[in-house]
Design goal:
This protein has 126 residues and is mainly alpha-helical. 78% of the residues lie in helices and 0% in strands. Helix 1 packs antiparallel against helix 3.
Length: 126
């Protein structure tokens, strides 16, 4: 299997693992939900976990890969405010936790670019 064939499946695996984590251990995700959103943080945690699982399924199937990859790129942009909130909330934590929270911020860009690359490589495929 070539790198371009593995890439969408690796991205699908990442999203699937994150989606499962939202259901298996929702509390840490609840804490990242910006307060200005309507509803409860748990509802947003479960909704984002379900979205990640749906995106993973779409990426795994060649027929829906391009659409799912573009949606994943948009999703990564959409969850950026949660990562900003986490970094702000953890700015006074011990250095390793603070580094992890702030380190997530620049990682969003490679995720967006990865998803866009998967979409680009899926063009013209059934």
């Amino acid at each position: 299997m070539s790198r371009s064939e593995r890439s969408p499946l690796l991205l699908a695996g990442l999203l699937a693992a994150a989606g499962v984590a939202h259901f298996a251990a929702p509390r840490p995700f609840d804490a990242t939900i910006p307060r200005g959103l309507p509803g409860t943080p748990r509802t947003w945690t479960y909704a984002s976990g379900a979205a990640e699982l749906a995106l993973a399924a779409g990426l795994a199937l060649p027929r829906t890969r391009k659409t799912a990859a573009l949606a994943a790129a948009a999703f990564f942009v959409g969850v950026f405010p949660a990562n900003v909130k986490l970094a702000a909330d953890w700015r006074h934590r011990p250095a390793p936790q603070k580094a992890a929270a702030f380190g997530r911020l620049p990682l969003q860009l490679p995720l967006v670019l990865w998803a866009r690359g998967v979409a680009r490589n899926a063009q013209g495929r059934p």
